[in-house]
Fold each of these.
Amino acid sequence: MKDTQFDIENTTETRTHSQTYKDAVAAFEAAEQKREQQGYATMLMASGLAGGFHEKGKPGRVVVIARSFCILFAFAVPNLLLIRYVF
């Protein structure tokens, strides 16, 4: 039978410097990997919308419509606000 004497070296409360260092390095690498994955996702999205940048196909039409809406909104809203609150 194993002796039930308290062994402080095997408790979870004591950690060596190397264990702490390994955990810190693992956390840093996990954060770095997550940033890298986000960069890949961004580039995948941008390459998927590449047709929109060149105004080709369905994404191109969506980009043209969205750009036209933004321009119309930017020019129309100040005029409408001026008419509503000044005159």
Note: The chain has a mean pLDDT of 81.
Amino acid sequence: MKEQGKKILVGGLITILVGGLIVFGVYLYSSIKHEDYYLDETIKDVADNIEEDNTIEKLIIEEEQLEEKEDTIEQIAEEVKQEEKVDAPIVNNEAKVTQNKTTQVNTSNNNQKANTQSEVKVQVKQEEPKTTATPTAVQETKKEEPKPVETPKQEEPKQDVHTYKYNSAIVEKIRQDIMNNESEYMKQYGYNIVVDESIVTQTNQFTYTGNRVKDMIVYKFGTIRIYARDYYLNGNYMYTECYII
């Protein structure tokens, strides 16, 4: 009996604890849900306030822009009025000046007419006793004939003068370079150095250096023809042409 009573007591305590936990869980869930709802509402309110602030700022900016445009329009209108005021007296002054000029011209014309009338009357009275009239000589103005315009003569362009002169000093240097740098073919078959001006039309010219002469005689033997000349343009020395064949 005692053991059954203990089991019943323990079972009752367990059921009480489980029920308390269930109640506590329900209460906790409801409180959390209520807090989430309150948080959502506060977030919506903040967002609405921010949107209202943005719209208010946009309206303020638009009003300021409209005020600035109105100010600029008023300034332009005032400037136009001032310009019209400045231009108006100038026109009146010009009109007055033209009126004064016309009145002066009219008065001067009237005076001239009166003087001419008086002069005509005097001349008529003086010319009454005259019986003979002297013919008036008509002077013809001679037309000046246009003088022919002389065009300056165009000078013909000067042609360049090309001259060549034999350079014996360079020829001697080429000869010495060949003799001091004999190739194997020259030693084997012999060679003969001849100065020949006709090779200028048979081969290309080069600028003298010892190495170039040495390179050009590597495969030469027998008769080796050489030549060198100075080139002048309009009497001015330009360069020296060398030839080996």
Note: The helical segments are 2-127, 168-180, 184-189, 210-216.
Amino acid sequence: MNRYLTIFFLLFMLLVMGAFASMAQNNYGFAMLGWVSLGFALVFLYQLIKKLTGKKAYSKSSVAELLGLITLTALFSLDNFHIPVPYSTYLATAAAILLVLVYAGNLRDAIQKPVSDGNSNKSWIIAYYAGVILFLLSFAISPFLPQIGIFTGGGAFILLLVFIFGSFLLPGLRKGWEHNHALHIINGFRDRSFILACIFFLMALYGSAVRIGWLPPLYSDAYPKVFFDMGSRLEPGSGGSTRTDLSQSEFKEKYERFVERNLEQKR
């Protein structure tokens, strides 16, 4: 995993740059977010192909993790490019649930791993994995049960904060990995959960800053804000759609025809 850290760091930097570009109302902001998501998907796809074609033995859980991450990042990329995907909500939910099962198994393995300091120090590992799992559950159930999804996401954020502060403050912690530093502990897990943890932290911090007015929302010149507001009401479980036979792709097509008709009339 260490060999990909530079690539992931670069993608995270581009992700932040794209978000700030979008907040500054630059046209390329959303496109950059889409390309970064596609970059993550391609890296995960390369890792999957290399794993399946390599000579080393691999576990089913590692393959399932990569499949879930590829699905999520590819859907995010298409969404940022405003390309509708049939049943995208259900595909993203299925991928999130698959990752929940993978990380639940990794949590079990981490707890069973013998350590020199006793089982009490494993509470930080439990907090970390529980935070990642709750974040994925929040992502999976929010389209259907938005209120429960908000509380689940809040619990995930608190657990990850517990892990970060606990792993930094706990003295002399050694768990068969290098040091008690949070990044060293995460690196010892040998999975890709830290990517989701970092993205969740960025999302949570940005969402909080937008709600209290410290940062502006993301901007897209391709469609006005009301387009995304109306489109989100067509998501399953949103409760905002008055027509159950109208999908997001159909709404997008009707909107584009409406804009074209009005532009032709003005000409």
Note: Residues 224-267 form one domain.
